[in-house]
Amino acid sequence: MSAQERSALLRELRNSLGSMSDEGVDWLPRPAALESSAETDLTAESPGDDASPLEAVRLELGDCQRCGLCETRNQIVFGEGNPNARVVFVGEGPGADEDRSGRPFVGRAGELLTKMIGALGWKREDVYICNIVKCRPPQNRDPKPGEIAACLPFLDKQLAAIAPRAIITLGKPASSTLLGRNVAITKERGIWREFNGIPLMPTYHPAYVLRQYTKEVRGAVWDDLQAVRERAFPH
Predict the structure, then answer these.
(1) Shared domain check, 117 and 35
(2) What are the φ/ψ torsions at residue 193 (nearest 5 degrees)?
(3) How far is 93 from 20, CA to CA, in rounded Å?
């Protein structure tokens, strides 16, 4: 059973128990099958007890209903890549392609990000890729403060579980969120910052690069990525 299915089942069970309580039911008999296996149940591990730190964060997120984005999404896009990655890319939020596939950065911007990663001599599997919100905002609008606030604890836990040597924030929303202040990405990119003790490099979002496909913009991103490579993989 997947984490989403388990979360939905637990939610349905809580609702059923609440309804029975309202009707005056305050006791239920223990099923015989459970009675006979009580000793085993006492020693069994609960789901997620042996999960990796990153898997535990995904299990905790469950079938998230913490903000209104759950009403319009198709899938939660948790993130993917190496759970021990030295570099983590953090974007803004899933788009239509990501919402359909459940994977981050798989549309046109994702194709460019994959090329950027490859130009550094890496593969997508070598790094970790995620977003500040796990569900697609309607019409790809910027995430609202309440939506970001609902997701941020899980991003914090993701980054703590991975413990990368460097974080690359892609674009203004991601950079502003992790830096805790409103930033102008044109002025902030290329300058080393810090998030919870982890070096952080803000740079342009691949979607912006596609819109402003100039030598200057491409060169700026390349400079930022090279700086991260040198920090994460020193000679």
Answers:
(1) no
(2) -125, -165
(3) 40
Judgement on whether residues 76 and 102 belong to the same structural domain of the protein: yes
CB of 89 closer than 8 Å to CB of 170: yes
Same domain flag for 188 and 208: yes
What is the 3-state composition of the chain as percent helix, strand, coil, each rounded to the nearest 5? 50, 10, 35
User: What is the reported pTM?
Assistant: 0.79
pLDDT in tens, 191-216: 999 999 999 999 999 999 999 999 99
CB contact set of 89 (below 8 Å; sequence gap of 6+): 105, 113, 117, 127, 128, 129, 130, 167, 168, 170
State what percent of residues in the chain have pLDDT above 70.
79
Which residue type does 223 have? D
Q: In this structure, what token pair is assigned to residue 163?
A: 């413990």
The torsion angles phi and psi of 128, rounded to 5 degrees, stand at -125, 140
Q: Which of 37, 66, 48, 54 is nearest to 144 (CA)?
A: 66
CATH of the domain at 88: 3.40.470.10
Give the E-state strand segments of 56-189 in sequence order.
Answer: 80-81, 87-91, 128-131, 166-170
Q: Is the CB of residue 79 less than 8 Å from the CB of residue 128?
A: yes
Same domain, residue pair 186 and 213:
yes
Q: Provide the domain limits for residue 220.
A: 47-232
| Nearest-angstrom CA–CA distance, 8 and 47 | 15
| Dist. CA 107–CA 117, nearest whole Å | 15
